[in-house]
Amino acid sequence: MPTPGKPKLLLIVAYLRSGSTFTSSLFSQQPDSFYVFEPLHMVVKTVKKHMALRYVNGTVRRFPQGISDNPQSLFRECMDPWLRCAFRKVDTASLLDNFHLHYSKSIKPLLLCVKHIRSLTPLTRYAINHCIRETVVKCISANL
């Protein structure tokens, strides 16, 4: 049973070319929904290249061996902030992923705001912190 005042969480997991993007676009059209397309896209891409995940607060997490140790644990850890609207704890590459411009209507205002501020000043961390507030409020107030 859903808890009153708490959003319903829906995680769509599907095979490639199975219609999941179409299905999720139906949910994202609801005015009281908050939808993010493939939130782990940049995590996988970054870790496969043995690069570090960098966070808004300045911390860095390195993966010299890739994710062969325990990928499920890493994916759970990286999904948690998305599901809790804790976007300051999402790695910067995932938060600013260009996928969101095309598929994540809910994150698009954040990206446009960051792009505008970044054109004025190179302080990306400042830009993200300034722009993220509205996105957090929208996520927290969403019913789905």
Automatic annotation (TrEMBL):
Q: Where does the record locate the signal sequence feature?
A: none
Q: Which InterPro entries match?
A: Gal/GlcNAc/GalNAc_ST, P-loop_NTPase
Can you name this protein? Answer: Sulfotransferase
